[in-house]
Amino acid sequence: MMEDVPFYIEYAKETGGPILELACGTGRVLIPIVEAGFTIHGLDISENMLCVARANIKEKKLSDLVTLSHNDMADFDLPIKNYGMAYIAARSFMHLFTQKKQLDCLECVHRHLKPGGLLLMDLYAPNFKWLSKAPEDDFEVRREFTLPNGNRVIHKRRFRGVDAVNQINSEEILFEEYDRKGNLVHTKKAYMDTRFTFRYELELLLDKVGFRVQNIFRDYKKNTFDGTGEIIVVAQK
Q: What is the model's pLDDT at position 196?
């Protein structure tokens, strides 16, 4: 998925930087923004992800424009407090499982932005049909890809259910690796929980810490939010 990258670069050009990315992962979004000429600080709670990001950044000779740090997105204090833009891509905000954690995150971002700075973030719009359906027995194939050694990997998922009280959606992820002869050589399972947030709930959270919502889109083409697709927020300090 790279469809979100031009969206973030567009706003980076509007704000001029410097830029802060929360939950930067391996640098999927960060690196193209740096290649567009911006200085950026990326933070992530996973040291393993940061190791991959550092290697990718070094390979592309971008180290002079990037600072990476091992931080919790809901609890960080960086030396710079004048970022022109901060963003939380790939629905990463949904990995904060309580409203307190969400507020802590937004307050941290607010402290680090200069006056007029922008926060961009995306979540999926809660779908009542999805949230009310029964858990799935079978896995659904999401994608396939080939490893450098030539082995094929099939990525599958299945829905495990919803905790409606705490607004937690649960999925099970399965990776199956096959050698060139088609033999299954390795499997790995993981569980992923995400907290869904409704549009006006999110607006209240942003307002509480001092943000003013500029726009809410349903996709990265900037179509107006209609209750479906994504909740892509642009908010100003």
A: 96
User: Token pair for residue 64?
Assistant: 């002079």
Which residue reads 């200085």 in tokens?
A: 39
The correct answer on CATH 3.40.50.150 for the domain covering 5-126+196-236 is yes
3-state secondary structure the chain: CCCCHHHHHHHHHHHCCCEEEECCCCCCCHHHHHHCCCCEEEEECCHHHHHHHHHHHHHCCCHHHEEEEECECCECCCCCCCEEEEEECCCHHHHCCCHHHHHHHHHHHHHHEEEEEEEEEEEECCCHHHHCCCCCCCCEEEEEEECCCCCEEEEEEEEEEEECCCCEEEEEEEEEEECCCCCEEEEEEEEEEEECCCHHHHHHHHHHHCCEEEEEECCCCCCECCCCCEEEEEEEC
pLDDT digits (tens, 9 = 90+) for 58-84: 999 999 999 999 999 999 999 999 999
Rounded to two decimals, what is the model's pTM? 0.93
Task: For the chain, give every domain's residue range.
Answer: 5-126+196-236, 128-194
The answer for residues whose C-beta is within 8 angstroms of residue 229's C-beta and 6 or more apart is: 124, 125, 218, 219, 223
